[in-house]
Design goal:
Blueprint: E1 9-10, H1 11-21, E2 26-29, H2 36-44, E3 50-53, H3 57-71, E4 75-79, H4 83-98, E5 102-108, H5 124-127, E6 134-137, H6 144-156, E7 162-168, E8 175-176, H7 194-205, E9 210-214, H8 221-234, E10 238-241, E11 255-259, H9 265-273, E12 276-280, H10 297-300, E13 304-308, E14 322-325, H11 328-335, H12 348-361, H13 373-383, E15 389-392, H14 397-404, E16 413-414, H15 424-434, E17 440-445, H16 446-449, H17 456-462, E18 466-472, H18 477-486, H19 501-507, E19 511-515, H20 521-529, E20 535-540
Parallel strand pairs: 2-3, 2-4, 4-5, 5-7, 6-7, 9-10, 9-12, 10-11, 12-13, 13-14, 15-16, 15-17, 17-18, 18-20, 19-20
Antiparallel strand pairs: 1-8
Helix pairs in contact: 1-2, 1-6, 3-4, 3-15, 8-11, 13-14
C-alpha cells in the first residue's frame, strides 16, 4: 500500500481500510494536494472502493448525499481545504436539513501552521458549528481508525446528518497501528414496543377522521411495504411530506397527496379537520406544515401521535399526546401486525373522499404557452418503468413535477428538502452509479441546471445513460413570481440569458434535442431513451405559466 511500512499502516491507509470495513463502495471527490496520501491509498483500494472524480466540490457533496438517500448508508466525499470546503458546504447543508448520513473528509493545513492564517486555512469547528452534526479531526495517528469509525457512526445515529472530518496533511503519511479485524459498531434503531403499537391501534380504532402522515429519512423498502400493508388493511388515508412521495405508492387507493409547497386547499382542510394524526418519520417542519400554520399548537396535542427516531424532534414545535422514539420503518412493521376494526371502517368515506380530491388535483391544467408541463410530466410517468429514479433541485418547475408525476416505488424520488438549486444533475449521476439497471431522469430548471451543468462531463466520461430534462423559461421563476406578488412590474435580477442547451450538451458528447410544443415531447423522449448514452432534452416553456393553474399575467387556469 503506497508508502506503508512493515511497522504499520499510514494514517491515509487506515482511513481507507475503515471505509472498506463500513462497506463504503464509492466516494466522490475533487482531488486536492492537501490529501494526496489518501488519494494514493485509494489507488490501492481500486476494485473495492470506486473513486468518482467530480468537476465541482458542491457536486461531490451532493452526490454523496444522494447516494446516502438511496442506500440508507453513509455517503462519503473528499475535498480540499478553503475554497473546496466552501464549495462543498451546500451539500453539507442539504444533508443537515434532510437528515441524511454523510461524512465529508477535508484535507487541511499542517498542524504546526494552525492559527497563522495559513494558505486556505479554515477553522472547521467554528465554520460548521451549526451546519454539521459533528466536527472531528485526525490529529493523533494512532486514533485515525477510531475517528473514522466515530464519524460514520455519528452520521447515522439518531437523527442522521453530516459529519466533517479534518485531515491535516502532515498526519496522513505518518504510521499508525494496524486496524485489521476491527468491526464497525452496529447501532440498532429503536423499535416500536408492542404495547405502544396496541395503544396506537386503540386510538385509531376510536377515531372517525384519521390521517396517516409519513416522511423523513431512514426508511427501507421493507418498511415502506409494511406501511402499505398497514394503510391498506386499515383503509387509512395517507399523505407524504415534502419531496418524500416515494414513501408510499401514489397509485394506491389510500394515497391522498403531498404536504409541501403547492398543497391543495382541500388537503390542508383535511389536516386541520382530522381527529387523529398518526405521523411516522416526518419532522413536521415549516414547509410541510405551511409555515407551522396548518396545525394549531393549542389543539394538536390531543390528536397527534408522533413517531420519530430522534427524541429532540419529538415535541420540538408541536406537542403530541403520544410521542414515541422509534424508527419509522420499524414502527410501520409493528403497526402492520395490528388487527383492524371490523369493516366497514367508520372513516371509509373520509378516505375515499381524500383520494378523490387528490386524483382531481392531479388532472392536467390549462396553460397559455405552447408547452403544458402538466401533460408532459404525466406522459413521462406513463413512459417510464415504475422503478425509474427522478431527481430535481429547486425552482417553480419542480411544482409541476411533484404535482403531475407519480411515484409508485420506494427510492425513486431524489430531491433536496432544503430547497437547494444545483442538486438534480449530481443526484442523477449518483443514482445511475448506484442503480445502473434503472432509468434515471434529471429534471432541472434553466437556472438550477447551470449551477451544476459542468457535471455533464462526469456523466459523459462515465458513460452514464441519464436523461436530462432542462425546463427553460429564461428566468429564476420562483423569485420572479414572488417579485410580481410584492412589487408588480418591478422585476430585476431574475431574467436569464441562457446558452443553447442542446449545443452545450452536444459539446459534452450527449444526444440532444429541443422541444417547443407539448406534442413534440413524446418523440423527443423516445429518441433520447434510445440514444444509448446520456441525453438532454431542452423544454422551452413560457415564463407566464409560472406555476400550475397560475400565470404571471394574472390569469388563472
Amino acid at each position: 500500500m503506497g508508502t506503508s511500512s512493515a511497522a504499520g499502516l499510514r494514517v491515509a491507509d487506515a482511513i481507507v481500510e475503515r471505509l472498506k470495513a463500513h462497506r463504503v463502495r464509492r466516494v466522490f471527490a475533487v482531488a486536492g494536494e492537501s490529501y494526496l496520501d489518501v488519494l494514493d491509498a485509494l489507488f490501492d483500494a481500486r476494485g473495492t472502493i470506486e473513486l468518482i472524480t467530480c468537476r465541482h466540490e458542491a457536486a461531490a457533496a451532493n452526490m454523496a448525499e444522494a447516494t446516502a438517500k438511496l442506500t440508507g448508508r453513509c455517503g462519503v466525499a473528499f475535498v480540499t481545504r478553503g475554497p473546496g470546503l466552501a464549495h462543498a458546504s451546500i451539500g453539507v447543508h442539504t444533508a443537515q436539513q434532510d437528515a441524511t448520513p454523510m461524512v465529508l473528509f477535508v484535507g487541511e493545513i499542517a498542524r504546526e501552521d494552525r492559527y497563522r492564517r495559513a494558505f486556505q486555512e479554515v477553522n472547521l469547528a467554528l465554520t460548521f458549528a451549526d451546519l454539521a452534526k459533528g466536527v472531528l479531526q485526525i490529529d493523533v495517528p494512532g486514533r485515525a481508525a477510531e475517528i473514522v469509525d466515530r464519524a460514520l457512526q455519528l452520521a447515522t445515529a439518531g437523527r442522521p446528518g453530516p459529519v466533517i472530518v479534518g485531515l491535516p496533511e502532515d498526519v496522513l503519511g505518518e504510521v499508525c497501528a494496524s486496524v485489521a479485524g476491527a468491526a464497525p459498531v452496529r447501532i440498532e434503531a429503536p423499535s416500536l414496543a408492542p404495547a405502544l403499537a396496541r395503544a396506537i391501534g386503540v386510538r385509531l380504532a376510536a377515531s372517525e377522521r384519521p390521517l396517516l402522515w409519513v416522511g423523513g429519512s431512514g426508511w427501507s423498502a421493507a418498511g415502506v411495504d409494511a406501511l402499505r400493508q398497514f394503510a391498506e388493511t386499515w383503509e387509512l388515508p395517507v399523505v407524504t411530506s415534502f419531496r418524500r412521495k416515494d414513501r408510499f405508492p401514489n397509485g394506491h387507493a389510500s394515497y391522498a397527496g403531498e404536504c409541501g409547497f403547492g398543497t391543495p386547499p382541500t388537503l390542508i382542510e383535511r389536516l386541520r379537520g382530522s381527529d387523529l394524526l398518526l405521523v411516522l418519520g416526518a419532522p413536521l417542519g415549516d414547509v410541510e406544515t405551511g409555515g407551522y400554520h396548518w396545525l394549531d399548537r393549542a389543539t394538536t396535542a390531543a390528536r397527534l401521535i408522533h413517531v420519530h427516531p430522534d427524541s429532540e424532534t419529538l415535541g420540538a414545535v408541536f406537542p403530541a399526546g403520544l410521542a414515541v422514539q422509534a424508527a419509522a420503518d420499524e414502527a410501520a412493521a409493528a403497526l402492520a401486525n395490528l388487527e383492524p376494526p371490523s369493516a366497514p371502517r367508520r372513516w371509509a368515506a373520509w378516505t375515499r373522499a381524500a383520494r378523490a380530491e387528490h386524483l382531481a388535483f392531479g388532472e392536467p391544467v390549462a396553460v397559455g404557452g405552447d408547452v403544458n408541463l402538466s401533460v408532459l410530466f404525466r406522459e413521462l410517468r406513463a413512459s417510464l418503468p415504475p422503478t425509474s429514479i427522478v431527481t430535481n433541485g429547486a425552482g417553480n418547475y419542480a411544482a409541476w413535477l411533484h404535482r403531475f408525476f407519480a411515484h409508485d416505488a420506494f427510492g425513486t424520488q431524489l430531491a433536496p428538502g432544503s430547497g437547494a438549486m444545483g442538486y438534480a444533475v449530481p443526484a442523477a449521476i449518483a443514482a445511475k452509479l448506484e442503480h445502473p439497471e434503472r432509468e434515471v431522469v434529471c429534471v432541472a430548471g434553466d437556472g438550477c441546471f447551470l449551477m451544476a451543468s459542468q457535471e455533464l462531463a462526469t456523466a459523459a466520461a462515465l458513460g452514464l445513460g441519464i436523461l436530462f430534462l432542462v425546463v427553460n423559461n429564461g428566468s429564476y421563476g420562483t423569485i420572479r413570481m414572488h417579485q410580481e406578488n410584492r412589487f408588480p412590474g418591478r422585476t430585476i435580477g431574475t431574467t436569464l440569458r441562457n446558452p443553447d442547451f442542446t449545443a452545450l450538451a452536444r459539446a459534452y458528447g450527449l444526444h440532444a434535442a429541443r422541444v417547443g410544443t407539448t406534442a413534440g415531447f413524446a418523440p423527443a423522449l423516445a429518441a433520447a431513451r434510445a440514444a444509448g448514452g446520456p441525453a438532454l432534452i431542452e423544454v422551452l416553456t413560457s415564463v407566464d405559466d409560472i406555476a400550475p393553474g397560475r400565470r404571471l399575467s394574472g390569469a388563472t387556469a
